[in-house]
Amino acid sequence: MDRQACRDAGINYEEGVARFVGNAEMYERFLGEFVNDGTFAELETAMKAGNVKDAFAAAHTLKGLTGNLSLDALYKKLVVLTDSLRGEGDLALAKTLYPGVEREYRAVLAFLSSQK
Amino acid sequence: MSGERKPTVLIIEDQNMNRQILRQILGTEYEVLEAENGERAFAILRERDGISAILLDLMMPVMDGYTFLERVKGTPYASLPIIAVTGERDPDTEQKVLNLGAWDFVSKPYQTNVLLLRLKNAIIRSQFYLLREMQHAYEHDALTDLYNRGKFFSETKLLLERCADRQFALLRFDIDHFHLLNSFWGEEEGDRFLRYAADLLRRVGREVEPCTYARISADTFCLCESFDESRIARQVDEIHEALTAYNRNYLIKPSFGVYVIEDPADRIQSMYERATLAAKECKGRYMTYLSYYKPDMSRKVVLEQEIVNEMQEAMDQEQFQVYLQPKYSLSSEQPYGAEALVRWQHPTKGLLSPGMFIPVFERNGFIVDIDFYMWEHVCRLLRKWLDEGLNPAPVSVNVSRVNMYNPNLVSLIAGLVKRYDVPPSLFNLELTESAYMENPDAMGKMVEALQEAGFTIMMDDFGSGYSSLNNLKDIPIDVLKIDMKFLSGGGSAGRKECIMASVVDMAGWLGIPVIMEGVETRSQVEFLRSIGCDYAQGYYYARPMPVSDYETLIRTAGQHAAPGQPENHRQIASALWSGDEGTELLFNSIRQPAAVYSFENDEYRVLRVNETYRAVFGYGGRPGEHALGSSCELQDDGCDQLKEAFRTAASAHGQSACTCLLPVAGGPERRMRLELQYWGANKNAAVLFALFSETERPA
User: Fold this and answer.
1) Which pTM was predicted?
2) What φ, ψ does residue B7 adopt, rounded to 5°?
3) Residue ranges of the domains in chain B?
4) With a cut of 0.90, is the ipTM above it?
5) Cβ A65–B17 below 8 Å, yes or no?
6) Can you state the angle between helices B65-72 and B91-99, rounded to 10 degrees?
7) Of B20, B25, B61, which has the smallest distance from its Cβ to A19's Cβ?
C-alpha cells in the first residue's frame, strides 16, 4: 500500500501496523475486511429513522473499529458524532454532523476498494 | 515444541473485527479465547480452567460489560483480573467500572504496548493476591477466619519471645458433647454456633492486646494472653454465659482449661496439651467449667498409659483381687453380707485402689472384662462357702454403666450363677443411680428381668444423680444404697439430715431397705439408728478386707439380717398412702377430727388428717406448723398428757386416751378428749390412729 495515498485517505498506516505488532500484511488484510463491515449501514439506517439509541450504538462501535484500524479522519468525525448521540442525544446536532461522517466513510471505502 | 504454556486471556467483545485485532495483538504472548457477549463468556468460564485474565468491552448488546461485572461478583471467577476496554476515558465511567471490580482500563483504539503491559501487570498482581489468599487460607480457619492451629502455635511462639518480661497463660475451651449438639441441630446450625463462639473469642481477644487466639479444631478454641487470674475468671464467665445463652433449650456447657506458662521456651504444643488436661477436669461436671493445670495432671496421664499397657496381663495373672466390705445391721450391729470391691495387687506398685484404675477402664471399655472377672470370682467364693457349709449371706457386685446397656446382661449373669450352682438370691447386683436415670425405661425392663431371674437389685449412690424422690415409686429396685457424703457439703445444718430421714422413712413405707455407705463415726451410727436406717457399710464397722479376713469375721460373728417390716406393714402403708378415693372417703366420713400419727423416740408426728381435723385445728399439712402436728413445739402440761397417751398406746400395741386443752384454729383453746388406737409399725415407729371429741362447748 502506498503510504502517501493512505495519508491522503486519512489512514495512519504506521500506527496501524504498530498496533498489529508490526505485521503489515495482517493490518492490510483487516483494512480490506473493513469494506465488508455492516456497521456503517446500521448507522445510516438509524440516522434516517432518527433513532438516537441505535445510532449511538452503531457510531460507538464504528468509532472503536476505525480507531483500531487507524482510519484517523473517519475516527475523528465519529468521536464527535458519538458524543452528540450520547445519553438523550442531540439529534439535530447529530444530523448536521452526519454528512461529514458519511463523506469521510465513502472516501475511505473508495480508497480501500481501489486497493484490492 | 516444548516450553511453558502461554497464559490464557478471555476476550469479551461483540465486534468481530475488534476481536480479531485483539487476537493479533495478544496472540504472540497469550492463548486467546473469544466471547461475543457476557452470556457466552460465562459459558466459557464454566468450561475452561486456567484463564489468567479477562479483557472486557463495556459496550455490548445481550449482556454489557457493566452487567457482566455485577454478575461475576460472588462467583468463583470474581478473583480473575478483568480489564475494561472502552472508548470513553471519562472519570465517571472509570469510577463506575472500578467500583464494580474491574482491575484496570485500556482505551480504544488500542495502544498495543500499553495494552500488553497493563494486561501483564494485572496478571502478576492477581497472582500475588492469589498467593496472599492462599497464604491466608493456609493460616486461617475457613469457617471462623480465626488463626488455625499451626498459625496460632507459631504466632504464640513469637508473642512469648517478644514479651519475655511478662507471664502469659494459655486458655483453652471446648464444648462438652459438641457432636451431640451437632447431630441435634444439624451441621449448618452447628457451624453457625461455632462462628458465634469464634466471635465471642474475637471480642474477648481484642480487649487484651497483646494476645493470640484461634480455633484449634472442631469445637476447640484457644487464647494466649498475659496472665491475670481475675481477668481470666471474668472472661470465662462472660464466654460461658454467652455460650449457654445461645440456645437455652440445650445444655451448652463449655469446659475451660488454663495453663499458666512457666517456661516460655517450652513447645507451644506441650503448653496446649496441659491446658487441655486442665479442661478435661471440668468434663461431666455441670457446675465446674474452669480449671487450672496442675503438675499432677501430667503424671496422671503417664500413669494412665501404664495402666492401659499392663491391664490385660494383670487380668491373665489374676492380679485383680476381690475385697469384701461387710454390711452391718444397724439394729443388731452385726455383719450381714458384703459388697465385693476390686483391688489391683500390682507386682511392683503394690496394692492399687479402684479410684486409680477404674476410671481408666471405664474410658477404654476394659471395665466390661473387670465386671465379669469380679462376678465370676464372687460366684466361686459363694460356691466355696456353700460347699463348706458356711451358710453365706448375700454378696453384692457392681454393674458398670457400659454393662447396664449390655443386651445380654441378664442371660450372662443368670448363666454364670447357674454354672457355679449359686442361688441367685445370694448374688446381689448394684446399679448406679446416675446410669440408671440416663435411660429409666430400658433400665426398668432390665431390672425386672433380673428380678424375675431371682436377683436382688440395689440402687447404688442414690441421691447423687438426678432422680427425684418421686421416681422412687417407679423404679423397681429392692434395696437403696445412700452414701454418707450426701450429708456433707452445703446446705444449712439439719436440712440434709431432715431430707435423709424422710428418704429413709419413705423407703420404709415403700418396703425398700436402706444401706448407708461411708459410715465412719459413732455419731453417724446413732443418727442412722434414730431415723430407722436398716444397714450401714463403712470404716466405722469395717474396711474392705481380703477374703480370708472376711471368712474369719463371719465364722466368729455369724450373720444377722436386719428385722423386716411387721406383717401388716403393706396393708397399713397402702391404706395410709394410697390416693385411693375409697380410703379418702372413709377417712373423711368420720365427723370428728381424726388423724394418723407415727410415734418414735418419744416424739409424735402427724402422717395424715381428715377434713374435720383440718377445719377444727387449722392444720394445713406442714409438719410442725401446729402444736398437734408435731410434739416438738408443745411445751406445757398438755404435751405431757398427750405424750403419755402416745407412749401407752405404742408400747402396749393397744389403746389409750387423755383429755387436755388443745389449741384450735382462730379461737381459744378447747378441752378435748383424744383416743388413740395402735395400728402397726413402720421400722421403729409406731403408727397410731387418733380420734378427737369435744368434752364441752366453747363459752
Assistant:
1) 0.50
2) -65, 155
3) 8-139, 149-293, 317-557, 569-694
4) no
5) yes
6) 30
7) B25
